[in-house]
Amino acid sequence: MDLPDDADGDALRRLADHGSDLSQPMDIDFAVAVPDEKAGHALATLAASRGYRPGLSQDEETGEWTCSCTRSMVASYEALSAAQAELDDLARPLGGYADGWGSFGNAG
To answer: What distance in Å separates the CA atoms of residue 98 and residue 13, rounded to the nearest whole number?
Structure first.
């Protein structure tokens, strides 16, 4: 597996090391930081129109808002980078930014 030596490459290697098949689709949860609930709802609407399944939550301790945007996809480095760039572009006018991703993978 030839992946860059960065956070995304490391995360993909961990998924593969734990039995996930990176050539098959899996749910990827992208976190997008938003400044408030209103921006979160606006982003959720935009993300849904692009095929993501959005959810909005607020951290009880910090008060920070996050719009999680989930998509079933093949977890290639290029596809993950493109999705993060897309979500960042959608969030930026609302005062938000893409803030990483995670997945439980597809290991049975």
So the answer is: 21
Cα–Cα distance, 31 to 105 (Å, whole number)? 16
Q: What share of the chain is helix, strand, coil (3-state, %, to 5)?
A: 40, 30, 30
pLDDT by residue for the chain (108 residues), tens only, comes to: 689 999 999 999 999 999 999 999 999 999 999 999 999 999 999 999 999 999 999 999 999 999 999 999 999 999 999 999 999 999 999 999 999 999 999 987
Residue 11 near residue 101, CB atoms below 8 Å: yes
For the beta carbon of residue 28, count every other beta carbon within 10 angstroms: 23
Q: Which residues have C-beta within 8 Å of that of residue 73, sequence separation ≥ 6?
A: 25, 26, 28, 79, 83
pTM above 0.90, yes or no: yes
> Residue with structure tokens 């993060």?
84
